[in-house]
Amino acid sequence: MLLPRIEQMDGKENFVKAIVAVGLCLSANIAFAQVIIYDNTAAASYQTKFASSGNEFGDELKFDLGTTQRILTQIQIEYFANLTTLGDDFVRFRLYINDGANGSSLSGGATIGTMPGPISGGTRQIPNLATTAQSFSPSVSRLAPGTLIYDSDADAPGGIPIFNGHQTTSISSMQIVLPSDGVTLTAQFSLSGSLSESAGLVVYSPPTTGSSTDDYWQKDIGGWTLYRDPSGSPQYNFGVRVVAVPEPESVATLSAVALLLYIALRRCRLSALNALRHSIS
Length: 281
Prior knowledge:
The protein is an alpha+beta fold. It is 20% helix and 33% strand. It has one domain (35-245).
């Protein structure tokens, strides 16, 4: 941004320029300040479980209401995989705005696997898959995933390769405008076909930044369906971290404020000088 050129600066003008410089510096720093607006990866929230499904499924994320950062720059997703061979198993991630038709809430759902012990240590357990019935009682109705705003297949056609164990996939250098209330993040795992293989999203609860209900979305033949465990445990919140920066409009506003402050102080100084000249003459 170009500021008016100032000639014959005195101490007051230096002060004015310093204020403007600080304002512009703050706006520039804010422009590049990445802020976590959703985080469900804390060790204390680790549930030693992962959820897998043959369908596309995922979690509805509600962002921290105290932040204004809404340009997505990075997302981290945790998964767990038990694979017999490497190189032929993949995952595809998508982000949706929840502006679709109301989703149904029926029974059925994901497979729950027991993961190795807590991050801090403990007994290492062999993943033991067990199907659990999922249902809503009473039934609920929420807007389902609708508008697709990101598809990892655009960056990694055919899917992102996955590996054994507890892993984190980080997708960065993103520039995606996010809605103010939140999004649904989904995963779709493609395994080589061996019945002994399994992979799914790691379960954490509760989120430490932002929020999420204890259910998850799954894309069934009839459309999007909400699932949850009737006992309320496990809560289907997955290990995800979302990082964002302010929208350009926010940065432009801060720069405009700095410029207006400069103009106001400049006018005050000129008024004072004119008044002084009149009093002397």
